[in-house]
């Protein structure tokens, strides 16, 4: 009996439609016409004899079986990509295309350090960067949309290999005169929990900051308002509260031109660990280890 298998192109069209939720946007992302993409998905449905997508004028809805096949298609496409990666990995180190996701509390403070060296030392590397929160970055990694993730631990990112780079201390930042005492470390009890400003949900720095505080009441009452560290800093500068900032951001000058004071917090968990992670058993492990060495060499001063 002849068995007809889906083509990679058909699976690519299906995944693109699932990601975009719209035929036009999916076709644009796939660099084909909408009719080509639609025909490819219909051919796939005819091939396997089931309906994967319910089409209406306004809504694209995947059937339960369609959702399962999309999940499998992600894995198939990822494996196909890795066939090419095996060949590339056998050639020059850190060459070809690499997609790296970086969380927003690292990207603006660390990338300017490393990109010039990477361009100079590895001119054949085409590094595509994507800034996104930890959850989205780890999901993209597992689905094969990105190759590696630069993030802060502790954070559960699934079945990954981890190369820990360095520890990044957390400091309390507040308007001059708001927190009394000496110039030494601040204890959590000195922080007014009703004035604590943190990043909104989805940013792992929020959890790291609260863990550093080690105070249940503080964890429940903190105001999680900011969408970025720069926004939080402006709130503090305008007297709206206090916050916690990573040392790499302070070293990069995020407090320059402000009247904000930063002091360490007295806590065993007053730091986050910066790490590079990638899918377990990736054929490009050598490249990722080499990239981790470059990142580690440009760690901020302790």
From TrEMBL:
The keyword Transcription applies. Residues 6-63 form the HTH lysR-type domain. Signal peptide: none annotated. Keywords: DNA-binding, Transcription, Transcription regulation. Pfam families: HTH_1, LysR_substrate. It comes from the Bacteria. InterPro entries: LysR_HTH_N, LysR_subst-bd, WH-like_DNA-bd_sf, WH_DNA-bd_sf. Belongs to the LysR transcriptional regulatory family. This is Hydrogen peroxide-inducible genes activator. It comes from Sphingomonas qomolangmaensis.
């Amino acid at each position: 009996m002849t068995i007809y298998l889906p083509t990679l192109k058909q699976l690519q069209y299906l995944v693109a439609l699932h990601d975009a939720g719209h035929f036009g946007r999916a076709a644009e992302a796939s660099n084909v016409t909408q009719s080509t993409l639609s025909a490819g998905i219909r051919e796939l449905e005819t091939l396997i004899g089931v309906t994967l997508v319910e089409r209406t004028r306004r809504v694209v809805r995947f059937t339960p079986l369609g959702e399962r096949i999309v999940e499998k298609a992600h894995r198939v496409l990822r494996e196909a990509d890795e066939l090419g990666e095996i060949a590339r990995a056998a050639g020059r180190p850190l060459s070809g295309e690499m997609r790296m996701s970086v969380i927003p509390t690292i990207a603006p403070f660390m990338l300017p350090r490393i990109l010039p060296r990477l361009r100079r030392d590895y001119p054949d590397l085409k590094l595509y960067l994507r800034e996104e929160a930890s959850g989205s970055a780890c999901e993209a990694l597992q689905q094969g949309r990105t190759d590696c993730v630069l993030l802060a631990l502790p954070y559960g990112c699934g079945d990954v290999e981890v190369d820990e780079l360095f520890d990044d201390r957390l400091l309390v930042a507040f308007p001059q005169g708001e927190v009394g005492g000496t110039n030494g470390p601040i204890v959590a009890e000195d922080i007014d929990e009703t004035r604590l400003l943190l990043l909104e949900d989805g940013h792992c720095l929020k959890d790291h900051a609260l863990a550093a505080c080690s105070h249940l009441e503080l964890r429940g009452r903190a105001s999680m308002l900011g969408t970025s560290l720069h926004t939080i800093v402006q709130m503090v500068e305008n007297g709206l509260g206090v916050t916690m900032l990573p040392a790499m951001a302070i070293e990069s000058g995020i407090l320059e031109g402000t009247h904000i004071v930063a002091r360490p917090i007295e806590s065993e968990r007053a730091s986050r660990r910066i790490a590079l992670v990638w899918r377990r058993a990736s054929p490009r492990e050598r490249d990722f280890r080499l990239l981790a060495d470059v990142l580690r060499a440009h760690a901020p001063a302790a």
